From TrEMBL:
Species per Swiss-Prot/TrEMBL record: Phaeospirillum tilakii
Domain ParB-like N-terminal: residue ranges: 26-124
Domain of life per record: Bacteria
Xref: CDD domains: IbrB_like
Protein name according to UniProt: IbrB-like domain-containing protein
Transmembrane segments: none
Gene3D superfamilies: Conserved hypothetical protein from pyrococcus furiosus pfu- 392566-001, ParB domain (3.90.1530.10)
InterPro entries: ParB/Sulfiredoxin_sf, ParB_N
Amino acid sequence: MDVINALRLLLHEHSPMRQEPVDCVLWVPAESVHANDYNPNSVAPPEMRLLQLSIMADGFTQPLVTWPDAPGQYEVVDGFHRNRVGKEVGAVRRRVNGRLPIAVINADRTSKEDRIAATVRHNRARGKHAVDAMADLVIDLQRRNWSDDRIAKELGMDSDEVLRLKQTKGLAELFADREFSEAWEAEGGS
């Protein structure tokens, strides 16, 4: 498998599609792939069983999207649950010889904020996010100096959704930099 991966990397280097991560899918040892610490996506047990069935019946039809966070080590950007199935389901693990298919995101997406945004975009394009976990991510990105507009743009939200998620956590500090107009004026008083 290592020789095949080396050949794929060589072909990818010369491919007219080399800027597309899916142009080079590698099969790496499952132990070299680990989950990120910010994925807000959750899958209910029935859907997890369905994913397991899908991979058992159809095989891996999508690689895990990863980021190389150390030599020979990859953090999952998208595919957290496929990662789990590949590692935890014995029949799948044996069939793929203890390896997982990965595509590595473009080299310019190295900051944690970029990876969080990529994870959210992948997940939102497919389904739902847990509200509290999404609120935590919005707060984290704001603390990393992302504006509400950038959060909305990068995560595929509108400004009202960003505001609602911030309100969900009830953190006044997130609104400290906002200017508010006087809504009411006292009449005849001092």
